[in-house]
Write a structure and sequence with these properties.
Layout (H helix, E strand, L loop, with lengths): L3 E5 L4 H12 L3 E5 L8 H12 L4 E4 L17 E6 L6 H6 L1 H21 L4 E7 L24 H17 L5 E7 L2 E2 L8 H10 L3 E5 L5 E2 L2 E2 H11 L6 E5 L5 E2 H12 L4 E5 L14 H7 L7 H14 L1 H4 L8
Parallel strand pairs: 1-2, 1-4, 2-3, 4-5, 5-6, 6-11, 7-10, 8-13
Antiparallel strand pairs: 9-12
Helix pairs in contact: 1-2, 1-7, 4-5, 6-8, 6-10, 8-10
Bound molecules: nicotinamide-adenine-dinucleotide (NAD).
The site of nicotinamide-adenine-dinucleotide (NAD) has 31 residues, from helix 1, helix 4 and strand 5.
């Protein structure tokens, strides 16, 4: 039986690009997604339609927060699980904590228990820089983990996923690679995140809503670089925790300027009060990932924004009608 790679959250932004990359390398992919309504499901369906065209792709619509949701795929010979499924977004997590606990804490525990039960060699788990909160810039991973105090419901549920995975997989034959992503952007990105919302609002000449004065810096990381990191993580001999992000930070105002440049339109900015305290600067330390898998991001923000704007323009027919909610 051919070995298969499982990608949970395959209809989501990162899971979709990762699945595409695996399929392009002729790897057989089992994609799992609940197609939840955390943001406009039409975009998830568009991503899924693209994946479904490949004969090496098999899709299961499962909700991983249900304990036995993975029973049906026990029969496959699985080499790796990429667990990308989650409910993401900080703001929304304060309004709907229960869904975050179900989709992040329960679902991760279920996926990891499944790895343990059928002895899957490795799981690569998506985590987030949001867990660092205000704990500073240039962060090391692991060495400073005891200082982490997640500042949101979202971050708490993601950190609980990390902790449960470590405990459940202790003394098993499953390798655990935790990948803490910083702000990821690019084509097929999430309509609840700043870059896609800004592009949509600027192109359609709508008000560009910015929380705070827009001077907050983010480690914007292009999706292609993130997929490259995820692919390189497979096959490592030991468990690791890595930061996956750009160490060059850019402010929201700079991002808006670039979008103005590539769309040829002016942004009509409306500055709103920041509803919660998100850190001003979040910058990763990349020593560990660089040493272990030789990874560093290579896409500059200008190139990444240009490509994302082009993708929006090419797909404007359906993108202009999506619902763009706040992160
Ligand atoms: N995009 C970013 O900037 C970013 C940054 C840090 C961390 N992350 C993490 O990376 C991962 C992927 O993020 P994304 O941006 O692709 O998000 P996304 O919301 O686009 O994708 C997540 C997918 O998981 C699915 N899902 C959610 N709960 C599920 C469940 N219980 N069962 C099955 N499927 C379920 C959703 O339907 C969605 O399609 C997440 O774990 C997220 O926490 C993302």
């Amino acid at each position: 039986m051919d070995k298969k790679v499982v990608v949970t959250g395959c209809s989501g932004f990162i899971g979709f690009h990762l699945s595409n990359s695996l399929l392009e390398a002729d790897i057989q992919v089992i994609g799992i997604d609940s197609l939840n309504s955390a943001y406009d499901v039409k975009l998830k369906q568009k991503r899924l339609e693209k994946l479904d065209k490949n004969n090496n792709f098999t899709f299961f619509n499962y909700n991983l927060s249900q304990e036995d949701s993975l029973n049906e795929i026990k029969k496959y010979d699985i080499s790796t699980i990429y667990h990308m499924a989650a409910r993401a977004g900080v703001r929304q997590s304060f309004l709907d904590p229960q869904s975050y606990i179900e989709d992040n804490t329960y679902a991760t525990a279920n996926v990891v228990n499944f790895c343990k039960e059928i002895e899957i060699p490795e799981i690569i788990l998506a985590s987030t820089s949001s867990i660092y909160g205000d704990s500073g810039e240039n962060l090391m991973v692991e060495e400073k983990d005891e200082k982490i105090k997640p500042p949101s419901v979202y971050a708490s549920t993601k950190l609980s996923g990390e902790s449960l995975s470590k405990i459940i997989l202790e003394d098993t034959n499953t390798n655990l690679i935790i990948s803490r992503f910083f702000t990821v952007y690019g084509p097929y990105g999430r309509p609840d995140m700043s870059i896609l919302r800004f592009i949509h609002w600027i192109i359609n000449e709508e008000k560009v809503k910015v929380f705070g004065n827009g001077e907050q810096q983010r480690s914007f990381t292009y999706i292609k670089d993130v997929v490259d990191a995820l692919r390189r993580m497979s096959g490592l001999e030991n468990s690791h925790t890595f930061n996956v992000g750009s160490n060059i930070t850019v402010s929201l105002n700079e991002v808006i300027k670039l979008i103005e440049e590539f769309t040829g339109k002016n942004a009509n900015i409306e500055n709103l009060e920041r509803a919660y305290k998100d850190p001003d600067v979040v910058r990763p330390n990349l020593e560990k990932i660089n040493e272990a898998i030789g990874w560093e991001p290579t896409t500059e923000i200008q190139e990444g924004i240009e490509k994302t704007v082009s993708w929006y323009k090419e797909n404007e027919d359906y993108l202009k009608d999506l619902v763009y909610v706040n992160e």
